[in-house]
Write a structure and sequence with these properties.
CATH class of the domain at 24-92 and 119-176: Alpha Beta
Domain DUF4136: 34-169
Strand order of the largest sheet: 3-2-4-7-8-1-9
Strand content: 25-35%
Number of strands: 9
Largest sheet: 7 strands, mixed
Helix content: 10-25%
Organism: Caballeronia sordidicola
Number of helices: 3
Radius of gyration: 22 Å
CATH architecture of the domain at 24-92 and 119-176: 2-Layer Sandwich
InterPro entries: DUF4136
Signal peptide: 1-20
Distance between the termini: 47 Å
Keywords: Lipoprotein, Signal
Structural class: alpha+beta
Order of helices and strands: HEEHEEEEEEHE
């Protein structure tokens, strides 16, 4: 019996150790047939909102230029580019056990207290969206997410941008996970 409880403890520690490792980078893309795959002929104009991060805009410009896309004025661009980037604390949810005699409020999920599972984790999310200037429709969108323990948004942005444009343009509704983004 003692051997069984030891193996159970080892299994539990292995499972928890797997949870503590770095999560993979998730990349997903959406592409309509109207999106040109001839990047050398594509022109773009960044559509930045007031207060937008100039570092993110510069990195996006660099990534798009590296792909052969050319900047143009808003009136002459093939695509208007919208950029979204955020870093936020990752929430840890604990699912409450629901017993037959328990009240309904005891059966929902609850937020784990800060530090309950060790150091805080952060989710970095980047989305680059190509909108056809003539049609106004989204013709290509790529999103990249990654979770780590670094709260600095500027530290994750270059790697996420590089990952978003690796293999550009990705196929329609392609999703993939990478061990690392950089």
């Amino acid at each position: 019996m003692k051997l069984r409880s030891m193996s159970g403890a080892v299994l539990l520690l292995a499972l928890l150790g797997g949870c503590a490792g770095e999560q993979p980078v998730r990349v997903s893309a959406y592409r309509e047939s109207a999106f040109s795959t001839d990047s050398a002929a594509m022109t773009y104009a960044l559509q930045l909102q007031a207060g937008a991060d100039s570092n993110a805009a510069r990195l996006l410009d660099d990534a798009m230029t590296a792909q052969g896309l050319r900047p143009a004025s808003t009136d002459n661009a093939d695509y208007l580019i919208e950029l979204g980037y955020a870093t936020r604390p990752q929430r840890v949810r604990v699912q409450a056990a629901c017993l037959a005699a328990a009240s309904e409020s005891a059966c929902g999920d609850t937020e784990a207290p800060p530090g309950f599972f060790g150091r805080k984790r952060y989710v970095h999310a980047l989305t680059v969206q190509f909108v056809g200037r003539a049609s106004g429709a989204t013709v290509y969108r790529v999103s990249v997410t990654h979770a780590d323990r670094d709260p600095d948004p500027d530290a994750a942005l270059p790697a996420l941008m590089k990952c978003a444009f690796a293999g550009f343009p990705l196929q329609n509704a392609e999703r993939r996970e990478l061990a690392r983004c950089d």
